[in-house]
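Researcher: First entry.
Model:
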Amino acid sequence: MKPVLQATSLTLALLFATGAQAANPVPAPTPEARAAELAAAQADLQRAARRVAELTRGTDAEVRAQERVAARMARRQGNGLGGRGAVAIRPGARSVE
């Protein structure tokens, strides 16, 4: 099929589809139907939130463990007991200023 004929047939199909839709408009949902749809959506949202919580539960423990390690390292660096740039001082050594 030639590109012009394809475009023309596609255009006509779209016109017929939109014309049929305009002739048969979708009725507005009733308040009861809207409330039921909203309740179903809220239930889906709650299920999704529970699933996210289940999936992240393990990673929260890992994050807390990493934070504890980082806090220990910061304390060690602060009191001179280790970490990067730590300097061991011998008893009786003279300070260099």
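Researcher: Second entry.
Model:
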Amino acid sequence: MFLENENSHLREENEKLKNIPIYDLQNINTTTNDKIKQSYLIIQNKYKILQQEKDSILNTLRNETIINEEQRNYIEILKRTLETNIINEKLFNMLNNQK
């Protein structure tokens, strides 16, 4: 919302500048330049914040991916252990039934 307001404000300022004759461009009000600089700094700071948030989210995603892979491996080991135990139990029962 804030960026939209800033963009709208910059568009209005741009339109004003378009209507100034070329020979008057050197006499542009310094407050307009200051507003542009201030808007640029605000946008730059917001960009840095968004960049930091993005990096944090990517790092979190990377860590979650590693944890999920570890859990997947652990589940596979448990599955194989269970299958082995089931097979051993069946073999044991079969041997006992043959006696």
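Model: Note on the second entry: The CA atoms of residues 35 and 97 lie 91 Å apart.
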